[in-house]
Structures are given as structure tokens and as C-alpha cells.
Amino acid sequence: MKVDPRQVEDAARELYVRALKVLPPDIKEGFGRLVASETDATAQGVLATMVTNIRVAESTDNLLCQDTGIPIYNVVIGRGVEIDGVALMDAIRRGCERATREHSLRSSVVHPITRKNEHTSCGPGVPPIHIDFSDEADQLRIEMVPKGSGSENNSWLRMAVPAEGIGAIKLFVVDCVLEAGGKTCPPTIVGVGVGGTSDLCMSLAKRAATRPLGSACADPEGAKLERELSAAVNDLGVGPQGLGGDSTAFAVHVEIAATHITMNPVAVNMQCHSARRASATITPQGVAYGF
Amino acid sequence: MAHHVLTPPVTEEQVRALRVNDTVTLEGPLYGIRDANQIALFDRGRATRFDLAGHAAMHTAPNVRKVAPSAEHPAGYAPICVGTTTSARMERFTRPLMSQMGVRLVVGKGGLGAASLEAFREIGGAYLAVIGGTAALETTWVEAIEDVDMDDLNPESIWKFRVKHFGPLLVAMDSHGGSLYADVAARAKTRRELVLFRLGLK
């Protein structure tokens, strides 16, 4: 299957706008579960306002949140897909710029030293574009995640050592959630990376934070840790917006990679309650949009 | 738990009447401030032509569209999506914002720390919490962008919004030392011990 870079560019543009406007169904269902179980009156009010906002965004065709985030694109290329890799990267960047200009999105991206805003949502190394490959022959999938700074600013890495065991991981997650308080716009999805190298560990945490609700870690030890930590962080009582309550997190998600015999790394990255993402699947039949 | 309708500029007395858990609806002018314009104001000595005395300043950088100036859009900007950002990043600016610029109300999300609480107590101010991430809803409370200063910093300019029934906002920090964030953090610290015990760490 040959993919035209122009098709990718249009999809990259469309995905950014879609992701900012419509929340995935798993997050909406997550709100339903939290509303049903929340016991704190203030927190109930906060959750109700968040649910109202989702409805207002859809009915007014507006963005859920003013923070257009750091735009992230995750691409999975099927083995039967023919495309020039450099053209693919350029197309995504152009689509991201077009979304920003044509929709008048706030560009939230600046040069880190000069702080100059090019008003394109792009800059050196941004958007981050992650490329992966799959067995599905005639399919190219693009996932777009606008990662807001409230949650992204609350990212941590700790290179614990083997002698500290799994306890170091649990303690770190609990203390990161406490440290984040209301700054991350809870209820959050707490993404936890366990193992790998320092960079891989952080990347695992990000992947975990943006994984759909209801999915479980493929590794049984990771899945067990997810259940334990999900209960633990909600017992802290931080609550939605850090104003108290049971709904501190929709879930804790864990992703795992092997690590060095001398290492025990753990990373945390959070996703806010506006846990936005959108996806496009390009096949010979055309482009299908989803989450 | 009283409800207050405030039309800035407000007096010290009006602000001192606010107590945590009260609610506030703002009417009229609301100024949007942000990381870059506060760095410009307080670290680089840049001046603003806006008089913020007695006013409410909200932590925001909105999505806007440049349009021809008109009665509807006097500043030449139409608001697209106006929402509130994390206040904690701008903790160190609360005091100068109040003492040098005369701001009485800070509107934000996620809360501020001990130094801001002290400034609210000493000078007379309060923190009004928006439910973060609910910008689509907030935008329905914004009538217009009336004026803009430091336009070169867009989107981190200083924005003057005209708002209608902006809220209800929660008084989360008051001028009497009350802070819902400090209360929740203190309770969570106690609960942490139980949580660690259940995780087999204590």
C-alpha cells in the first residue's frame, strides 16, 4: 500500500483539532464511574463541572481546555506500507502547523532559551514524532496526543537501586501524587514506567499515562502493581483539583521494560482529567478517525 | 458559605469579607496574566499601561483570533477558548502583583503556596479557584477582549476581558490564613502513613 504524504498531512492537521475538542469514550466512562463512587460533596461539584465542560465543548464545537499542549504524534507503520520516512515526518509537522494557523489554536511551543513563540506549535524537535512498526500490512496508524503542561510539568524520574526493591517504586508513585496535588488537574491517569534506561523509563511512563482506561499492563507483575497503586493513590484524599475527595486518579497505569542488573528505575508522568487523544487509521479504503 | 457578586475594582474590606468555601461570581473587567508578562513586569522592569488596583487577575493564556477592531471586539481579538492555567508556577509573583500593582483577587487553578497565603493575609487578597481544564465552559462567561497590553508576548500578553456571571468560583485561599489546599495537603500527609502501611512499606 502506497501512502501519499499529503494524506498524512491532512490527517495530522485534523487529529490535532479533533483531539482538543472531543474526549475519548473511555475517559467519559471513567467520569461516570468516579461520579458514582465519589463521597465528598465538594468533589462531587467539581466532577459535575468537568462533565458539564465536556458537554459544552461538544455543543459549542470549542476546545475542552485552552492548553493546546505539546503536540505528540505516535505513528505505527504496517509492514506493507510504502512511504518515504522523511516525507512522513515533514507531512506531520506541516499538518501540525496548519492546525495551529488555520484553526487559530494557541501555539504553546517556544524556544527553550529565547522563549520565542513561532506561532506554529512547532520548534526544534517538536512535535515529538514516535515511529513504530506492526505486522498489519495495509495500515498506517497515527495517534495524536496534545499533552498539557499542568500534567507534563509533573514528571519525575528516580534511578532507584536494586537493594531498594519494589518498595522504592511504590513509595515514589505515592509521593509524586502527593507532590502534584491539584496542579495536574486531577482526577489524573498516573503513568508509571518501571525499568529500562533513564530515557526509556520516562517514555514508558508517558505511554502508560496516555493508554486507554480499562486497559491493563501486559506484564502480570505490572498489572498487579497497577491495581495496588490505583487503590493507594485514591486513598490519599487529594481529590479532583486537589480540593479533597476520593477521585484523585482514574487509574494508575504501569508499563515495564527490562533493566540493568544494577538498576531499578521508576518514572512518573501524569495525564490530566482532560485526557485527550485522537487517532487516524489510513488504509487503502481511506482515512478512519477514532481514539 | 456565602455567595458574593463582585464587580472590580474591589476594596480591601470587600476582599476581607471573603472566607474559604464561599463562592464568588465576577462581573465586568478581569485581567489575564501569565508567566511571560510577569517575568517582564517584575524581573525586567517593563511597565504596563493597565491600572490593576483593586482588580482580579487570572492566570491564563487564551486561544484568540485576530480580527478587525469593532464594537464587539474592541481590542481586535476574538476569544476562542479562554481557560485557566496552573497557578503554582507563578507563586513568587503574587506578592509583587498585590504590593506593586494593587491586585486584590487572584483567579487560578491548583492553588498557591504559603508565601501567597501570607501576602493575602498581610495586604488583603484572596484566591478564587476555577475548576481547571473546564475552559469551554469558562469561555461562555467571557463577553469580549476589551484591551490588550504587551501584545508582542502573545499569547502571554496581558489581556483585559469583560466577563459576565464569571463563576461560581470557589474562595480557596482567604485573607485570614485559610487555604483549602493546605488543609487537603495536611490531611493527605496523615493518610500517607496509612497508605504506605497498606502497601507493606511501614
Count every helix of chain A, treating DSSP H or I runs of 4 or more residues as helices. 8
Q: Tell me roughly what share of residues is in helical segments of chain B.
A: 25-40%
| CATH architecture assignment of chain B | Alpha-Beta Barrel
Count of DSSP helices of chain B? 6
Which term fits the overall shape of chain A? globular
* Tally of discrete structural domains of chain B: 1
Q: Return residue spans of chain B where pLDDT drops below 50 for at least 5 consecutive residues.
A: none
User: Could you say what the CATH topology of chain B is called?
Assistant: fumarase
Overall SS class of chain A: alpha+beta
Rounded to the nearest angstrom, the radius of gyration of chain B is 18 Å
- Gap from first CA to last CA of chain B: 39 Å
The CATH homologous superfamily name of chain B equals: Fe-S hydro-lyase, tartrate dehydratase beta-type, catalytic domain
Overall pLDDT score of chain A: 97
* Share in β-strands of chain A: 15-25%
Number of strands of chain B: 9
The largest sheet of chain A is: 5 strands, mixed
Number of domains of chain A: 2
Q: Could you tell me which chain pair has the largest interface and how many residues each side has?
A: A-B, 56 and 52 residues
Taking pLDDT < 50 over at least 5 consecutive residues as the criterion, the unreliable ranges of chain A are none
Q: Strands, helices and their partners?
A:
The complex is a heterodimer of chains A (291) and B (202).
Chain A: H1 5-21, H2 25-37, H3 41-60, E1 70-78, H4 85-102, E2 129-134, E3 140-147, H5 149-152, E4 155-160, H6 165-180, E5 188-195, H7 198-209, H8 220-234, E6 249-257, E7 264-271, E8 278-283, E9 286-290
Chain B: E1 3-6, H1 12-16, E2 23-33, H2 35-43, E3 56-59, E4 63-66, E5 77-81, H3 94-99, E6 105-108, H4 114-124, E7 126-129, H5 135-139, E8 142-149, E9 158-173, H6 180-198
Parallel strand pairs in B: 1-2, 2-3, 3-6, 6-7
Antiparallel strand pairs in B: 2-9, 4-5, 7-9, 8-9
